[in-house]
Amino acid sequence: MRQFDPLPDDVTVYRALLRKQWIDEDTGRVKADAYFLRVNERGLSVNLASVCSPKQCAELFRKCYGVASLEVGGVREVGLDVEQDSVNHANILGLPYREDDLAEAERLAGLLAKQSQVAWKPD
Amino acid sequence: MSLNAMTIAQSTRPSSSPITVTLKRLVALLEEDETDEYGVLQPSQAAFKLAMRFVVEAYDAMGDRFPKASVSTDEQGSIRLTWSKLEPECEVRLICPTHADQQAYLYHELGNDYAVERGVTVSILLQWLEWLNQA
User: Fold this and answer.
1) What is the tens place of the pLDDT at every residue in B108-124?
2) Pick from A27, A33, A107: which is nearest to B114 by CB?
């Protein structure tokens, strides 16, 4: 049974950019690299902007090179979903593993990257 | 291969030329920590050798038409090279796998058209880099 209500489309979520190479050095845009599902991962980890700032999101990790923001409605527009699983956390669901569908995994990672805005970068 | 790469890196190419920047970015991956919170960070030897071979051979064929790539590793040590263009928005991604017995693949996208090419060769990479240049 779901513990949390479905997130409205206008909710913003943050994705921590754990590698500096996930941000294109030339354009400053987030790359698809930030949005691949790893083996044994059910979904992509994101934090809810309503309960944590981008900087607080970054501080949850040992090293964080930026925080990308995404709108839940935009994620749903590409056929994925965002499901809340704790007070401050949610998962982007519906991405295929690269091992199962390479083209779709690459395509969807790119679509999520295009929707991403860099909300925070370290000084 | 490594001699070619060194020759290019040390040649009269300006330090901001696409091939020099791409090679420097690849070499910089080797200087990263072995792992990070996300997984393997440093590329495997197989991935690095293959990526260098693709880049150097593509540059040999394309010369100054060779576009600058952005590089990264995935969580298993494969190398991802991304060539992108903003107008029109299109992208070519080459993935050089962690292990020598795995196949490299290439992903290309323009608007809603996208596909993956498996078993990539230098000539396939050249074809898609020229496609990107002409898009």
Assistant:
1) 999 999 999 999 999 99
2) A107
